[in-house]
Amino acid sequence: MTRLLIASMLVAALGIAGCGDKTGPDGKPATTRTPPPDPNSPGVQAGKIVFQDNCQQCHQADGSGTTQARTNLRGVFGRLDEGKIRDTIVHGRNFMPGVPDLSKPERKADMDHLMEYLRWLTAPKT
């Protein structure tokens, strides 16, 4: 009887553990989330230059931000979807100035590279 009770509790516990939200901060199922881009890829390297030219002054080289304002980028892809991040970069938000130049068609590659770099920069490091 004790074995049956323990086995039943184990099955119930495993069933409960299997329940819940299986999505990551990007809203995709956890098993289909893409890993952060390779830091040595050309896109990430190009995005780093865009970041250094337009963002690093306030967000710091590591994305941790400054103490004067809420400029920490860690987890930004969990807080905002990519469209909102792009919109914020172009138009600004609160005290953050926008970079409207990045919305021009000829700068699309720069914006795409910046997004790739931000995905790498803000991904949890293991």
Would you summarize the structure shown here?
With 126 residues, the protein is mainly α.
Q: Mean pLDDT across all residues, rounded?
A: 78
Major β-sheet, in short?
none
CATH architecture of the domain at 41-126: Orthogonal Bundle
End-to-end gap: 45 Å
Query: SSE string, helix = H, strand = E?
Result: HHHHHH
Q: Give unreliable regions as ranges.
A: 4-23
Structural class: mainly alpha
Q: Classify the helix fraction into a percent range.
A: 40-55%
Approximately how much beta-strand content do the residues carry? Answer: under 5%
Shape: globular
> Can you identify the CATH superfamily of the domain at 41-126?
Cytochrome c-like domain
- The count of strands amounts to 0
Q: How large is the radius of gyration?
A: 20 Å
Number of helices: 6
Task: Please write the CATH class name of the domain at 41-126.
Answer: Mainly Alpha
- The CATH topology of the domain at 41-126 is what? Cytochrome Bc1 Complex, Chain D, domain 2
What does this entry look like structurally?
With about 130 residues, the protein is mainly alpha-helical. The chain has a domain at about 40-125: Cytochrome Bc1 Complex, Chain D, domain 2 (Orthogonal Bundle), CATH 1.10.760. It is about 50% helix and about 0% strand. It contains six helices and no strands. The protein starts with a helix and ends with a helix.
